[in-house]
Input
Amino acid sequence: MVSSPSLQFMLYETMLKKLKKRRASSKKDNGVTALEVFLLEDLAKLGATVVTYPLLVVKARLQAKQVTSGHKKHNYESTLDAFLKMIQLEEFYDFYKGMSTKIVQSVLIAAVLFMIKEELVNGARSLLTSRSKPP
Output
């Protein structure tokens, strides 16, 4: 599913820009620490997961073997039909069943990856700028 990483990256970049802008306006160093990147990415992944997780639930239900002669709540004709039946016949909580496991798995991994990416970018940037300065 492409929507979750896209939303995650958008949220992360937006929060990072706001943090840097706030620091620039207060005349502080607008560099970002690894811990701040980790926390921003945690929030971004959490937000993206909360928004897109219902889509994963519906996708899983559509992919599961559907009972054609069973209860009508388990027989879906389309994605929209699955959403509508879940809204009508189940609780709101059912869209988020199992999300805690997904959060533990994906939020921490994404945060560590973004933290490493930012550190590599900062290291490469400082290496390139130090080589371009005359001795």
